[in-house]
Amino acid sequence: MLRTHTCGELRISDIGKKVTLCGWVQGIRDLGHLIFIDLRDRYGITQIRITPSDQPELANYVKEISREFVIQVEGTVRERESKNSKNPTGEIEIFPGTIRILNSSKTPPFTIETETDGGEELRMKFRYLDLRRPPLQKNILLRHKTALETRKYLDSLGFLEIETPFLIKSTPEGARDFLVPSRLNPGTFYALPQSPQTFKQLLMVSGFDRYFQIVRCFRDEDLRADRQPEFTQIDCEMSFVQQEDVLQTFEGLVKHLFKNLLGKELPVFKRLSYAEAMEKYGTDKPDLRFGMPIVNLTSIVKNKDFKIFNEAEYVGGIVVEGGATYTRKQIDELTEFIKRPQIGGAGMVWVRFPSGEDPKSSVDKFYSKEDLMAWKNHTSAPDHSLLLIISGPKEKSLKVLSELRLEVGQRMGLRKADEFACLWITDFPLLEWNEADPNLPDSYRGRWVARHHPFTSPKNEDIPLLDTDPGKVRANAYDMVINGVEVGGGSIRIHDRNLQKKMFSVLGFSEEEAERQFGFLMNAFEYGAPPHGGIAFGFDRLCSLMGGQHSIRDFIAFPKNNAGRDLMIDSPSEVSEEQLKELNISLNLK
Ligand code: ASP
């Protein structure tokens, strides 16, 4: 090896040792009578100290060196005069005997330090340099450890990691497929998997009993912020289980990860049904780091002279504790917030409940003190609080209230990065009516689509509703939510051919279509398919959450930008005529 130690490991106990280090030059400080080099590798930074008066040749040689040169330093570990307690190697420095340049470097386009001066685009283009920075190195390390601990935990429970193919068949599953033309079979295409869903179910039919895979998935979606066209899942499936078994097993996984990677003991996860979550938080992924549930006020605000409430399908509010002191300006800011086009609120009514004084509201003209006190009672608003009220169509109002709740929670500092509120959402609707989802092909418009995917089983007692009121059917489906982020989701699957066939028919597939696309799965169900269920976690997202950050991009070594492009290798890119011809593809770009 070209080194005896890394740049992060030498301590005061190593004083006197002869060592050889290799690394990148983070910086050089030439003070005239002394020259310091900070040498960096992924383990840390070690200081090299040269005294020009004693080592004129060496001092001369290092004049050629600048930032990001790769050098090898042979020398002796000495105690530092002025120690740096912030750096684990800060008590020592190296007195070099020889220094060798292993490779030179151009001046990097941005500083390779914890805080960099490089803009997003530049850093994406030079991703390999951005990845040298300590915060990214830390993220990638956390990702590695998360994968490792996941494997350990699942292995200890008898799960087998089994690979499934990347070149598969295009099937509708929730988003658009990426297609790969087949040269050997002209006019036909493979699709890249949106998930290994059908394969993992087939592995259950094969008797593998417990499967997992840390696996890349591909979805050709319109890109929203922080979505990647290729991303990684921890994909899992188990046989002979009911929903409760799956929840216990994977609550255990997340607890294991938090304990072993962050030293955090998570309490038992809360559980909320989808219906409850929507009613109380206006979303199926509530952030439960704080309370502030939505209270339905519809029945008690009607029949006064306030037309807006009288005509509203729904009126609901949230109570901001201590909010009685909010100024008009602060309240106006919140009103502006809900009126943003992405949120779409029309307006907001507020009531202050100062302690020892009469309530004060934006609707004083229409409601008496007694009315407002009745609202206070109904919402259990304490003294000194502020009630914020939204009205309108129910679904929309709940969405606005949900956003408002998050915004207020954010402003009050209730969404702390190092606190984790984990829960399960259960009893999702099986189906949803699709009018215009930009992520689904047009052929899906105006029909029922599976909310999760077509293989999710309906609750037994709801099966008859499939014929009469499909929208009411609840699924054996569950999501894991942490801090308002959906980190995983899964279901107990259909394992009966007839029920699966029925499901496809509800989804508007003709028998032939269902047979053509999913015949292989339905056939397999005729050869002893065990009851089974599973889950998949968004691995990138789980890592970013554990790292206390929002963006998944910084937890992926080579991500794509918001337009789905890799700026470093410049992809997607055009290909040659010859390649296209071999694939029998002709481009007709207008
Ligand atoms: N395949 C599903 C997904 O990707 C997860 C599951 O049901 O296990 O969302």
Please write out the topology:
Blueprint: E1 18-30, E2 35-41, E3 44-50, H1 56-61, E4 70-79, E5 92-103, H2 120-125, H3 127-130, H4 134-156, E6 160-161, E7 179-181, E8 189-191, H5 197-205, E9 210-218, E10 230-239, H6 243-262, E11 270-273, H7 274-281, E12 295-296, H8 298-301, H9 307-311, E13 314-320, H10 328-339, E14 349-353, E15 360-361, H11 369-378, E16 385-392, H12 394-411, E17 422-426, E18 431-434, E19 447-450, H13 465-468, E20 477-482, E21 485-492, H14 497-506, H15 511-524, E22 532-538, H16 539-546, H17 577-582
Helix pairs in contact: 4-6, 4-16, 14-15
The protein binds aspartic acid (ASP).
Characterization of the model:
The chain is α+β, with helices and mostly antiparallel strands and 590 residues long. It has three domains: 12-103, Nucleic acid-binding proteins (OB fold (Dihydrolipoamide Acetyltransferase, E2P), Beta Barrel), CATH 2.40.50; 121-272 and 531-590, 2-Layer Sandwich (BirA Bifunctional Protein, domain 2); 290-415, Gyrase A, domain 2 (2-Layer Sandwich), CATH 3.30.1360. 28% of the residues lie in helices and 23% in strands. Strand 7 (179-181) and strand 8 form a beta hairpin. The relative contact order is 0.11. The model has no long low-confidence stretch (mean pLDDT 95).
